[in-house]
Design a protein that fits this description.
By secondary structure, the protein is an alpha/beta fold. The protein has helices at about 1-10, 10-45, 135-140, and strands spanning about 45-55, 60-65, 70-75, 85-95, 100-105, 110-115, 130-135, 145-150, 155, 160-170, 170-175, 175-185, 190, 195-205, 210-215, 220-230, 230-235, 240-250, 250-255, 265-275, 280-284. The chain is globular, with a radius of gyration of 28 Å.
Amino acid sequence: MTNVARMALPPGGRTAIRATLVIAAAVLVVGSLVALGVAAWGIGSFRVITDSKPLPSAVRSLVVDTGSVPAAISITTDREAREPRVDLRMVNSTAAGAEPLSVNTSGADARITIDGEPSAFLQWSRAGEITVVLPPDLARGLTVTTQQDNGVVRAQADLDQLIARTDNGAVILEGSARRIEVHTDNGEVSTRDPISVSESFSATTGNGKIIVDFAAAPPRTVDATSDNGEIVIGLPARDEYVVDASTKNGETVVRVPRATDPATATAVVTVRSENGDVVVDDLR
């Protein structure tokens, strides 16, 4: 059957088929070369840069605002640091300036911003990393506020207050604070080790889980809310708590000793999820 079909096909038809195959192969090769050329051009248009700026030694309120530039923010302390500073390492356009880090001060207030030359080429990659380095004594009296469209926050310092707001990204908590407030639309809120918060803790997320453990001295109020995600709060087992825990779609588990009077309770704990399990557990 194959021989008959091959014999029935005139020489002109075979030539046309060969020409079509050659053209198709050429189109594929050219397309691949164009794609590689575009990628090489895109990569060649960027560079890795570093920048560093000192912060006021008397700063009491610090805002880190990365805007639309994807960035990871780390807040750390260093006993050897003589003055606070901010370090930046990021991928930036070759056409941009060499020092994109900006620090504006007014009295005891400071604000950090970056000019990152936003690009669709880097839309979904981590374009930069900001590290705030603080002397420990200064950090304990400092309020830090972070604002991001996209990026991760990692707080590794003992602060007075931490306020973290991000549209897309996780918030990882370490150290201690008098007050912590976290808001994220898409991302989780978590602790690596139990944290110390003396006054209040609140965390809200649209899509993401909240998993936070508190050390020996839990805050007076704990408020955690997620639209879509599980919530797990760990508290010292020796104390009693007023607990209001609920979920519309999931399981609710409370394993800590419960009190009925807020005046005698160690903390008032409010935990709610629209879609996800809710657990208030004891840390033994």
